[in-house]
């Protein structure tokens, strides 16, 4: 049964928030986003060494802390609120949780310890050239020669692709049907080419990744599209937690500004019109937090509810993050859209996230199908 966070989890959130306040201040974010890698390797190492955040949900037998999705969600929420520049989402959620969810003991033994100690950066290479988040998005192909596999194809927009040493790659092994889709692990190097791209969100790196007969290892039992769909649900849950943090921080910054900005002899937060606008955003932010935390609980304790809860959280948090960050710019007035102020960075993060793993319309259509309320052409996952 879904339950509120415990006192220990609230204390953990405070610790994580304080850590990000130290390593992801506005000045540090601007410094990191101007580097080639988009993050500070020393902070990444410190994150693993001092708080072991990369291994928060990795089982203890693989060097992690052995916590669950709730604790991981806390880290993701605070990382989103701080616009933390690092391959955390790509490595821990897209790669790490994909490997964990696969049930592949050999892959877990090989890769999870590196993720937990911060020595390995990974990501998910999907979708393909057509940029669709359904079965048709699997355009990478896999070929078997003897006991060895190789993959070939291009994924035009891969989160932290240029930083990754390991790629989780859905690929077609035969005819174009969901049963002929399998997951593979590909190491960076032979047959892998990455090209960093200029992106809307300067705080998150995106790369074009091409595979040319790159050596690959099957991940899991080859369950077809169903396995990939679960991974995309997991990714949506993780992203929703980030988006909830982005939305919360946008509202907090707006309220702080309205308390200090004086106009007509009083703080602008005293004007009733702005109070009403802020109250509306607060309702949205609380809704996003509730939807996100429910999906995190389902991912951990109620896997049968994961598909619907993932679509619910993604649909709500995507829209709320955009609304809250846009309103934050409006609250800041003329300063809101200037480069020197921070609101535009949060809006860019929200807008960029808006199309990851399917937009809000896609997820609402998927939710309708998954709860049996209807079926539309968009609801294909």
Automatic annotation (TrEMBL):
Keyword Oxidoreductase: yes
Enzyme class (EC, first level): oxidoreductase
GO MF terms, alphabetically ordered: flavin adenine dinucleotide binding; short-chain fatty acyl-CoA dehydrogenase activity
The organism's place on the tree of life at top rank: Bacteria
Pfam families cross-referenced by the UniProt entry: Acyl-CoA_dh_1 (PF00441), Acyl-CoA_dh_N (PF02771)
This protein's UniProt keywords: FAD, Flavoprotein, Oxidoreductase
Cofactor: FAD
Residue ranges of every copy of the Acyl-CoA dehydrogenase/oxidase C-terminal domain listed in the record: 222-371
Domain Acyl-CoA dehydrogenase/oxidase N-terminal: 6-118
InterPro entries: Acyl-CoA_Oxase/DH_mid-dom_sf, AcylCo_DH-like_C, AcylCo_DH/oxidase_C, AcylCoA_DH/ox_N, AcylCoA_DH/ox_N_sf, AcylCoA_DH/oxidase_NM_dom_sf
UniProt xrefs under SUPFAM superfamilies: Acyl-CoA dehydrogenase C-terminal domain-like, Acyl-CoA dehydrogenase NM domain-like
Gene3D superfamilies: Acyl-CoA dehydrogenase/oxidase, N-terminal domain, Butyryl-CoA Dehydrogenase, subunit A, domain 2, Butyryl-CoA Dehydrogenase, subunit A, domain 3
EC number of the protein: 1.3.8.1
Protein name, as recorded: Butyryl-CoA dehydrogenase
Source organism (scientific name): Corynebacterium glyciniphilum AJ 3170
